[in-house]
Design a protein that fits this description.
391 residues, mainly alpha, single chain, Na+/H+ antiporter like fold
Length: 391
Amino acid sequence: MFTAQVIIVVCLLLIVAYVFDLTSHKTKIPSVILLMALGYAVKELAYLFNIHIPDLNPILPFLGTIGLILIVLEGSLEIELTHNALPIIKKSMWMAFVPMFIVAFGIGSAFHYFTGADFMKSLINAVPFCIISSAIAIPSVNNWSKRDKSFVIYESSLSDILGVILFNFIALNTTFTAQTYIQFVLEILLILVISFVATIALSFVLSRLQHRIKFGPILIFVVLIYEISKYYHLPALVFIMIFGLVIGNINKIKENKYLAYFKPEKLKTEVNTFKEIVVEATFLIRTLFFLLFGFLIELNEVFNYHTIFWSTSIVLGILLVRVIVLSFLKLSIGKFMFIAPRGLITILLFLSIDPSNRIPLVNNSMVIQVILISVLLMMLGVMFTKSNQED
């Protein structure tokens, strides 16, 4: 009986989440805020009716990891590698990396100075706050022009990938010598080789497999390769990005004798279906993650006055750096300044910090506050930005 009730509740929550997603472009309210509020409301109702809920904390990192893989895969599948897109891609790379680098060292230096913590520990705790959440940013600009939306897709997706690589590089190295950087370059080269081989193999399987079940195994292999690469401390998200970019742009590859082995026409059809499945799966996992995160939130963490100054200062610092870099790149400040929400990856990286590297100042309250403030500012920015769907 209890199992049936749980299934009914989860199904109802997912339906409500879908309504949030459908109406977000009209209400301008990011669905993530509504999902977190809904998750918190479910917890309060459970307490009110004295319903026992088991500890769900261990599920959050699992959903976060799967969500991260799917979000980066979805983002890379959306990126169109065309000659006309190169200027946007170049500017988005600068916007993804430069503010991240500046903000990381700025926040890290502040943590180091005011808490007395080791600078490397401070930097590890700072990086999660420097990554734009593509899971929140991309859906929020659905009614923008194709060009502006493409920029947001490129910037937020690259921010996810580069941010996780930067975090792992700092967190997994205790010292930084010439050997450290050489090893990092070798790891990048190794993951590029793995990505190239795996992408060819998976593309071949996708084009040749006749069985009615084909996309599930492909996604399972993608997750498996990611986890194995991550286990050996390789920048696994590079594989996800390359795989998504290649199969997402398979129609751009010119006909040649080698491509014939992949049955290009069939492969293009299968890739379109695969994209749809990835979008659906990403929606489900992202929804469950933010519902669960909202369920686990404590109200005193949201209104913790001990961290609100830090949280506000971090968000203001992020926006200040964005204004400077946007001005330098001659991009619209009014349109793009507030499209810098923090979300799933910030939470996931925060949870993955080793306890020995934790700084007491950086806690659940600060993470939640930074996410909420940045998302609310993005919501206001989108509300007061003129919608334009013309290319």
